[in-house]
Each structure stands twice: as C-alpha cells, then as structure tokens.
Design a protein that fits this description.
The protein is of the alpha/beta class. The protein has eight helices and eight strands; from the N terminus they run H-E-H-E-E-H-H-H-E-E-H-H-E-E-H-E. The strands form three sheets. A three-stranded mixed beta sheet has the order 1-2-3.
C-alpha cells in the first residue's frame, strides 16, 4: 500500500520561459494557457525560478493611483524591488519551492500548505524541469472510485494486519467515506486499522463500529472423584 506519486498526477508538458522573457509575453502566456504561473528555465532546461500572477500583480499594485485613498507601497529595503521588474529574471520568485516526481501526493500537499503556494514545479534529480503539480492535480486522488478504495482497504489493509480476519470485518465505501463494522481479535487493532484506512488514496473519512471478538472460555473437566460420589 502506498500513496500516488507526484508523477502520477502532474501536468506535462510545462509552459516555461527564458529568464529574459518580457513582462507582457508572460502575461500573454498565462492568458493563452489559462494558468497562474510559468516556470523559468535556463538553456539546460534547469529550473531557476517561477513567475506567478502574484509576482506580476506587484507591478500593478506599485503604480500610482490618484483616486486611491492610500499611496503606492514603498519598495522593499531587503532586496531588489521585483515590482519594478520587466523580465522573468527580475520578476521571478527564486529559488522556487519544488518537488520531485517520486514524492507522494501527501508530501507535495504538505509542502504546498507550509509554503502557501498554489503549485510546485517538479524537478528531476539532475535539476531538469519535468512537470508542474497544482492543487487541483493533487485533489484528483479524491476522484478515485469507491470500488477501488474498497478493494484496497480489504486487500492491502485488512489482509495485512495480523489478528484481523477480512471475513469478520464489513467494509462499506460511499463517496470516499469508509464505514467498518464487525469484530477484531484485539481492541488495540482498531486504531491501527483506522489509521491505515485513512492512508488509502481517495479516503475522505473512516467511521468504525468494530468490537473485540469474544474469546471462548474453556470448559473445565470434572474432577475424577465427582463421578464416584454417592
């Protein structure tokens, strides 16, 4: 059992530009391909940065507006003022937050969340750009069919946990919501099963109605003298 990898859901080919690509050309590419960012690569197709809508909007936000109540923001003193940039090299965010093709979709989602970005360039071991993964790409795992989820829960979870009999556990899946019922050998197996089910791609939630299987109490043999009692 394992999560889908980034290469299973990433978008290829990637719209990319050279570092000297101009502002207007970048805006035109975003509109033409209906995307929110372009990768910036060098002559060896290695990733050097990303230009997003947010990077481009800095220029518009920095312009004077006589009708506005507030003045334009002042240039940053911490580095070059990207709002004044005219080429990809001057506008891009660099180094870009990126991931590898073999990373799991869970790892990619956590990376996006921690860095508050909407997409991640996918880079091979040699630094070449091989894809782009977006939030919508990662969410595609939740389009997985209930039948496939059911099969993985039974075959890769229940069949692999020692002390669990798949025949004694019922599994129902409806729109990614898993419901478990039946019995298990030990109560401490329940949280393990739930955690493994939640790790199955496409699972939205897990509800369990599992109980511990009662252990038969052996019948004690009668004492030898009991049958001879008068």
């Amino acid at each position: 059992m394992g999560h889908c990898s980034v290469e299973d859901v990433m978008t290829t080919p990637v719209v990319r530009v050279a570092p000297d690509t101009g502002f207007q050309e970048i805006v035109a590419l975003l509109a033409e391909y209906d995307i929110t960012a372009v990768a910036v690569t060098d002559l060896q197709d290695r990733l050097v940065g990303v230009v997003s809508e947010a990077d481009l909007l800095r220029k518009q936000a920095s312009q004077e507006d006589p009708s506005a109540m507030r003045p334009a923001p002042r240039p940053s003193r911490d580095g070059p003022d990207r709002a004044q940039g005219a080429t990809a090299r001057e506008l891009m965010s660099s180094p870009a937050v990126c991931t590898g093709p073999r990373a799991s979709v869970v790892a990619a989602a956590r990376l996006m969340d921690s860095h508050r970005v909407k997409r991640l360039p996918v880079v091979a071991d040699d630094g070449r750009l091989v894809g782009m993964v977006s939030r919508s790409d990662l969410l595609r795992v939740f389009l997985r069919g209930d039948e496939a989820i059911h099969r993985e829960v039974v075959e890769d979870v229940l069949n692999q946990v020692s002390g669990v009999s798949p025949a004694a556990v019922g599994v129902e899946v409806d729109q990614g919501r898993v419901v478990l019922s039946g019995t298990v050998a030990r109560a401490d197996l329940v949280p393990i099963i739930v955690r493994l089910c939640l790790a199955v791609d496409g699972v939205v939630s897990v509800t369990e109605h599992l109980s511990r299987r009662p252990v038969p109490v052996p019948t004690l043999p009668e004492a030898d003298g009991a049958s001879h009692a008068s």
